[in-house]
Amino acid sequence: MTVFWKILNINWPLQILIITTALFGFLMLYSVSGGNWDPWTTPQIKRFTAAFFLIFLMATINISFWKKLSPYAYILGILLIIGVYFYGETGMGAKRWLNLKFVKLQPSEAFKISIVMFLAYYYDKLNPKYVSHPLYVFIPLVLILIPSFLVFKQPDLGTALVIVIIGISIMFLAGVHLGYFFVAGIGSIGVLLLLFQSRGTSWQILKNYHYKRIDTFLNPSLDPLGSGYHITQSKIALGSGGLLGKGYMQGSQSQLNFLPEKHTDFIFTTLAEEFGFIGTIALLAIYTLIIVFCILSALSIKDRFGKLLTAGLCVTFFSYFSINIGMVMGLLPVVGIPLPLISYGGSSMIVVMISFGLIQSAHVHRKESS
Fold first, then answer.
1. Which whole-number Å values give the CA distances from 169 to 4, 27, 163, 175, 309, in the listed order?
2. Which of 143, 181, 306, 318 lies deepest, with the highest CB count within 10 Å?
3. pTM metric for this prediction
């Protein structure tokens, strides 16, 4: 298949949806910048444009190449996370970033792709009759828990939990027996009880600010000007938008800087305040269509690696926007997960676009089977 035909065979509805979502993001960043292209809108447009063409390049590369690359992607991901401990930059109380001069990379974000690739590779190589064998269930669990623990110690509880969710989801999609998930569910309840029991002791597991976030989640009014400020202002912005919103660039909470992190984690609330219920439903509809087209693509792929890769990256994308929206609505604790293709940020944008590049590669070569 020539490069020309590969480009023609790209999942074009998915590409159009990606562009549409990004345009939403540019609009909102322009708004929170006070009607200026800087400091957030122009850099975001440049990143998206470069990454969008990267999707086409990745789509033309045979899926077998990404399959062979998967173990190395996992190893490199682990090394980069470890590298953060020695060479990382600290921001907002955590050491999570590596300054590579040309880009400031958050390795834990990039690892969300690595874990999907390697688990898809693992189950592609594994004989299906051994998928639920205890030994072959234990191996991927270790592969998931090691990086999750390293990310948790940065500390970055939110990303660590997302890595676990993504990994467990791929195990489910690969056909691991449901009994394991039932046992894991019971174990999770025990872990939660242990986390709360450890609070205030010499062996406290989480950081104090983690517990404060949980307290704020359960009752934001406990400290409305302190730890509860973010979510309180977020709910005010969400509610004030009403059905149709206050109008573009007319949101009081965002334009008057009452809303914190308005260009990153809490940008959804700016959208809700300015475009109301209709605007948020429109964005959710686009996200839903992206998920639907990814699922349809996964179902059409013959190669087991490509199928699991697409489904796993679909779960990753879903976790991004569902956790972010749940967080800003007060349905989940604040964990610092960006809204994909909307929030300002280099690492998250690159990770999401590389994910779509891999999905398109699997789609273009979907009729090929290993």
1. 35, 33, 10, 10, 12
2. 306
3. 0.91
